[in-house]
Amino acid sequence: MKKKHDAPQARVPAGPLVIFDLRERVPGMSDMALENLLENAQRLAQSGNDTQRNSAEALMPIIAAELAVRAAKALADTIERKAMKKTAAAAAREARR
């Protein structure tokens, strides 16, 4: 039985610290999660230990590239939607004549 006056024991991790390789997960992440991950990677690149710094520096270009691909796709989708609206409006005007 635990006594009330005993100080709580610090938990010791079950194994060594594992840093996950997130490169394969990047394409499936939401935009918000990617932006958050990029901010964290930038912070760790500045203030992390050697392992964290190396991992962050390897991950940042992958995140930036994925964000750039998504931005280009969004721009292309916007242009396509505008063109479709313009075509539909022209067809509607032509139908009224």
- What does the average pLDDT come to? 84
Major sheet, described briefly?
none
**Structural Rg:** 25 Å
| End-to-end C-alpha gap | 90 Å
Q: What structural category do the secondary elements indicate?
A: mainly alpha
Unreliable stretches (pLDDT < 50, length at least 5) are none
What does this structure look like?
The chain is mainly alpha-helical. It has a domain at 32-96. 66% of the residues lie in helices and 0% in strands. It has two helices and no strands. The chain has helices at residues 31-47, 50-96. Helix 1 runs antiparallel to helix 2 (50-96). 7% of the residues are buried.
Secondary-structure topology with pairs:
Layout: H1 31-47, H2 50-96
Helix pairs in contact: 1-2
Q: Short summary of the structure?
A:
The chain is mostly helical.
